[in-house]
Specification:
The complex is a heterotrimer. Chain A is of the alpha+beta class. In chain A, 34% of the residues lie in helices and 10% in strands. In chain A, β2 and β3 form a beta hairpin. The termini of chain B are close together. Chain B is globular. Chain B contains 17 helices and eleven strands. Helices cover 40% and strands 13% of the residues of chain B. In chain B, α11 packs across α13. An eleven-stranded mixed sheet of chain B has the order 1-3-2-4-6-5-10-11-9-7-8, with helices on both faces. By secondary structure, chain C is α+β, with helices and mostly antiparallel strands. Chain C folds into three domains: 289 residues, no CATH class; 116 residues, no CATH class; 59 residues, Orthogonal Bundle (Arc Repressor Mutant, subunit A). In chain C, the strands form four sheets. Chain C has an eight-stranded mixed sheet. A three-stranded antiparallel sheet of chain C has the order 5-4-15, with no helix packed on it. In chain C, strands 3-16 form a two-stranded antiparallel sheet. In chain C, α6 packs across α8 and α12 packs across α14. Chain C is elongated, with a radius of gyration of 30 Å. Chains in contact: A-B, A-C, B-C. At the A-B interface, α1, α2 and β3 of A face α11, α12, α13, α14 and α15 of B. β3 of chain A pairs antiparallel with β9 of chain C, so a sheet runs across the interface. The complex binds magnesium ion (MG) and zinc ion. The site of magnesium ion has 3 residues of chain C, from loops.
């Protein structure tokens, strides 16, 4: 399980790290299992508080960043483009 | 005696009377940080150049304007999760080392607009995940009242610096108690506004549906002044409430006569340390003496709140932190032989253990086959928690409880037991699930450690929280006490 | 073994023609900009930045859905689709999962003159990703370069039901959909540049069997032709697998233009777990019935109905009617010409012939033609009335188009109006007979072909304004061959 999660979340956990984290995740999940006891029949899910709907903006162009600003924090770029290692 | 011992309104009078300048005030804050923060670790960095520039501008406004804003010239610190244009902003994480945002968070811009002077970026648990500030990727912060103890988290740097008079006020963020808990541990006031009362634009996200920015300050009035500046709708944050901000200043003078205050049975019946219980009980007596009626109420879903929180928050974290990929910002691993390795190396090196734990947990609860049993169910429990509060707020004006079951604990005491650490937030996180307003106000001490009282108000009930908080503050009369060693 | 039947469904992604991006104020038009010059904290996925929904994009999607006969649920929301890829700055795409803006419609299209209908599962709204550049093939390149100008452009996804039964139907369905999007003005229909993209799902099953076979997803087809070719390839490939007793694997395959083959990209085992969940940064949508009715009221005439109407109303040929209604601006131009009094068939001929050629050469859209519909209609009327010859008309149109002038003004200025007055013409006719006695004699003795040079001489003597029909009638009369 942990290896799968580590890959899905790009955590790159080493074997030792996986071994350390597994019992912690198990303990947390066991505690979180408390949820299964709650009676939620007929209860709606709340994804968000505040009861807002239809918050939208007009289709207008606003000034953004210059290419220089966009790249200023990038560890690697070339000819105005972000550079990433080989996609295999 | 330091200028930083004064409240914002006292400082404002001094600034307007030219008893001292904003430049001098900022200089004193920075000087104190320079000489005293080596012990505390509350700042990740000071911003002397920015502070000087803003203080000079503030001095010009104070000279030129008939009625400058209350915060004009007042030194303030920003929790490092707040994007500050051109100033390194790391959220306490190695993965963001060197990141200089090209933009200001809305709250940062609003404080600047009112002339506040930024003296630095405050230490915090990595991506605000933690209750002790021990999860900072750079350094722990310690509690100024006892340097062997934690300041609370995740806004521990902000709370410790205000308590130690290194800054007049600071912003923090509260996702499960991260403003209120350190406020309680450090003996300062901390406000968690209702969800949507303050813009999250430019706030490095922990859990988007729970995060709120709030002030940490020495007094309820100071906190109110900062809150009044930052609160209100923002077109850049679709989740801000369009409702106008109520008269928060007026609330401070109203007193509690005639208010019905509820004490949630589930918050006080188990697990409170004696010293906490004693301080809370005296606060109750003060409030009754001031004319409030105290009633016991029940929030029956409280027992599931922690579990719901530790599903919802990690789920959102796992997604919010996906952008930390080392491509557009952060040190990254551009020399890695493949993209996959670049992602994994950057994130493995950049994230600390708590962040990895929560990202893994959040990834799990959202993954196919587990979504319904964990995430969806947690959202339903969230509804129950919110309904509990709506129900009791039909009967009472506000709720009061201790902010935390214990005072500040020792460094290292809970670092190896995530569940014990998570339980620290048991009394604060239900308010985040429900999106309601809350604050923590110092009410006394136990064995030399500050103890806070939590006031919870209804949705958009900040004024009510401040009103009750101010009454506790008046009765407790402790805000001028300065931790030993920081009082010179 | 029973004959195998293909079951095909298309997923189409269409960039919306909004001014700004889906969730930020950057420009939606990104082509030709310097790399990474069209971003902001939001579409760059910087820490702390938040999305805000573009109202126009929502309206365009609802309007498209209505044109496809979809239902617009009252409640809709955005979700996060989580996966890592360098062109996806936030590590998730804001899309719609279980509560899309619309559900359940259909699209009518034609295959070889026969009308078909294909179900539409849903039309939803999401954001586009950035673009990747690399030397050579993506999986062998040492590094890739990322441009985020396109990241966050509004993208409408139109998911079709698996109702298509042959590769031949797929491009026809897509053509009809493209035409609809063009008529709605929501997309520019450009497949090469990727503003309209198409993925296909295809499975085979024995004819008569109800259950579907194993589904393969095919990507990377950027023309109608490659869509059909890729599906034909898959039919051949999957048939061969089945007929040799093997099983088709569920996987994603990419069409390679070079190899004219599909190539495996990702198998089911490596399939993504997208961990969809409701986007906490965006409150849900409650689409008011008022808005739906307002958008429905503003729908243009459906392209197929427009085609039939123009065909019947103006006695156009099937082909001509189809061409003139291909794009809304063509139909608008045509209808404006007719309204200005041009006979419909000639109007269509002039528009589809000389005018379209001029526009194409000048790379101008017909709506920006320097000769507007009213002007071309006036020219067509003159030609029809015999006031200028077709040849002169075409020559003048070329000049008028280049100069941005009115063709009729040019004709007047240059005195090119044909003389159709018999008395005035008589002198030129007599002159031509004197000038070309041999041709005159030949024609008199029955050689019809000799008339041509004589008419030419009349036209020449007139300076090009003699009406050639009248000239030949008068020549015939003069040379004793009138009335025949
Ligand atoms: Mg899609
Ligand atoms: Zn943008």
């Amino acid at each position: 399980m942990v290896a799968h999660l580590s890959r899905l979340a790009r955590l790159g956990l080493t074997d030792a790290e996986m071994e350390a984290i597994l019992p912690q995740l198990r303990a947390i999940l066991a505690a979180v299992d408390r949820l299964q006891e709650a009676d939620v029949s007929g209860v709606d899910a709340t994804a968000q508080i505040g009861g807002l709907y239809d918050v939208m903006r007009d289709d207008q162009v606003d000034p953004g960043l210059t290419a220089e600003e966009a790249l200023a924090n990038a560890p690697s770029h070339e000819a105005g483009l972000l550079r990433v290692p080989a996609i295999q | 005696m330091s200028l930083l011992d004064l409240s914002i309104s006292e400082l404002g009078r001094g600034l307007r009377a030219r008893e001292f300048s904003s430049v001098e005030l900022a200089g004193e804050a920075l000087g104190r940080a320079e000489s005293l923060d080596g012990r505390l670790g509350s700042f990740l960095r000071t911003t002397p150049e920015l502070a000087l520039e803003q203080a000079r501008a503030a001095d010009r406004r104070l000279a030129d304007e008939a009625d400058p804003p209350a915060l004009c010239g007042i030194p303030i610190g920003h929790k490092d999760v707040l994007c500050t244009r051109g100033v390194e902003t790391t959220a306490g994480s190695r993965i963001l080392e060197g990141f200089r945002p090209p933009y200001d968070a809305t709250v940062v811009a609003r404080l600047a607009r009112d002339g506040a002077v930024v003296v630095g970026k405050m230490n915090c648990d990595e991506f605000a995940m933690g209750s002790s500030n021990e999860n900072s990727g750079f350094q722990p912060t310690v509690n100024p009242w006892d340097e062997e103890r934690v300041p609370g988290g995740s806004s521990g740097g902000s709370a410790a610096a205000v308590a130690a008079r290194l800054t007049v006020a600071a912003l923090g963020t509260d996702t499960g108690g991260s403003v209120r808990l350190p406020a309680s541990f450090c003996g300062v006031v901390g406000v968690k506004p209702s969800y949507g009362r303050v813009s999250r634009y430019g706030v490095i996200a922990f859990a988007s549906s729970l995060d709120q920015v709030g002030p940490l300050a020495k007094t309820v009035e100071d906190a109110q002044l900062v809150l009044s500046c930052i609160a209100g709708p923002d077109r850049r944050d679709s989740t801000t409430s369009p409702a106008p901000v109520s008269d928060l200043a007026g609330a401070l003078r109203e007193g509690v006569r005639g208010l019905r205050l509820g004490i949630p049975r589930e918050y006080v019946e188990a697990g409170l340390e004696d010293g906490i219980k004693a301080v809370f009980e005296s606060a109750c007596r003060w409030l009754e003496a001031e004319g409030a009626e105290l009633v016991e109420v029940s929030l029956p879903s409280t027992e599931y709140a922690l579990a719901a929180y530790y599903v919802i928050a990690p789920a959102e974290v796992s997604s919010n932190l996906a952008r930390m990929d080392g491509i557009r910002f952060g040190p990254g691993e551009p020399q890695a032989p493949s993209l996959l390795e670049a992602y994994e190396l950057a994130r493995n090196r950049g994230f600390g253990p708590e962040v990895r734990r929560r990202v893994a947990l959040g990834t799990f609860v959202l993954s196919s086959g587990y979504y319904d049993a964990y995430y969806l169910r947690a959202q339903k429990v969230r509804t129950l928690v919110a309904q509990d509060f709506s129900r009791v707020f039909e009967r009472v004006d506000a709720l009061i409880s201790p902010t935390a079951p214990t005072p500040a604990f020792r460094l290292g005491e809970r670092t190896h037991d995530p569940l014990a650490m998570y339980a620290t937030d048991a009394l604060t996180l239900p308010a985040n699930l429900a999106g309601i307003s809350g604050l923590s106000v110092p009410a006394g001490f136990t064995a030399g450690l500050p103890v806070g009282v939590q006031v919870l108000g209804p949705y958009l009930g900040e004024a009510m929280c401040l009103r009750v908080g101010a009454a506790v503050e008046r009765a407790a009369d402790v805000w001028r006490r300065v931790p030993a060693g920081f009082d010179g | 073994m029973a004959e195998l039947q293909a079951v095909i469904g298309l997923e189409v992604h269409a960039q919306l023609l909004t001014r700004s991006k889906m969730f930020c104020g950057c420009r939606a038009e990104y082509l030709g900009l310097p790399p990474n010059s069209n971003t902001c904290p939001t579409c760059l996925g910087l820490p702390g930045a938040l999305p805000v929904i573009n109202r126009r994009a929502v309206e365009m999607t609802i309007q498209t859905a209505l044109a496809l006969g979809c239902r617009i649920p009252e409640f809709s929301k955005f979700d996060r689709k989580n996966y890592f890829y360098p062109d996806l700055p936030k590590g998730y795409q804001i899309s719609q999962y279980d509560l899309p803006l619309s559900l359940g419609g259909h699209l009518e299209f034609e295959v070889d003159g026969e009308r078909r209908s294909c179900g539409i599962t849903r039309v939803h709204l999401e954001e586009d990703a950035g673009t990747l550049h690399h030397a050579g093939e993506i999986h062998t390149a040492k590094f890739s370069l990322v441009d985020l100008n396109r990241a966050g452009v509004p993208l409408m996804e139109i998911v079709g039901e698996p109702d298509l039964r042959s590769p031949r139907e797929a491009p026809q369905y897509l053509r009809a959909l493209r035409q609809l999007l063009l008529h709605l003005g929501v997309n520019d229909g450009n497949m090469e540049q990727g503003s309209l993209r198409c993925d296909a799902n295809i499975s085979l099953r024995p004819r008569g069997q109800r259950e579907l076979g194993v589904k393969v997803e095919v990507k990377n087809m950027n023309s109608f032709r490659s869509l059909e070719a890729a599906l034909e390839f898959e039919v051949r490939r999957q048939s061969a697998v089945i007929e040799s007793g093997g099983t088709v694997h569920q996987e994603t395959r990419g069409w390679s233009e070079v190899e004219q083959a599909t190539v495996s990209q990702r198998s089911k085992e490596e399939a993504q777990d997208y961990r969809y969940f409701p986007e906490p940064d965006l409150p849900p949508l409650q689409v008011s019935r008022d808005l739906v009715e307002r958008l429905r009221g503003a729908l243009p005439e459906p392209p197929l109905r427009l085609r039939d109407r123009l065909r019947d109303q103006h006695q156009l040929g099937e082909e001509q009617a189809a061409l003139i209604t291909e794009r809304p601006q063509d139909a608008a131009y045509f209808e404006a010409m007719v309204a200005a009094g041009a006979p419909p068939r000639s109007a269509a001929n002039w528009q589809l012939g000389p005018l379209q050629a001029l526009c194409k050469d000048a790379k101008l859209d017909i709506e920006h033609s320097p000769v507007p519909a009213v002007e071309l209609a006036a020219l067509v009327r003159m030609v029809e009335a015999g006031e200028v010859s077709g040849t002169t008309g075409r020559e003048v149109l070329v000049e008028a188009f280049a100069m941005g002038r009115s063709p009729v003004d040019l004709i007047r200025e240059r005195g090119l109006i044909q003389v159709s007055d018999a008395a005035q013409m008589q002198a030129w006719v007599d002159g031509a007979i004197l000038q070309l006695p041999k041709a005159a004699a030949d024609f008199r003795s029955g050689n019809d072909r000799a008339l041509g040079p004589l008419v030419g001489a009349v036209r020449k003597a007139s300076g090009g304004v003699a009406n050639p029909d009248l000239a030949s009638r008068l020549l015939r009369e003069r040379l004793g061959r009138g009335g025949g």
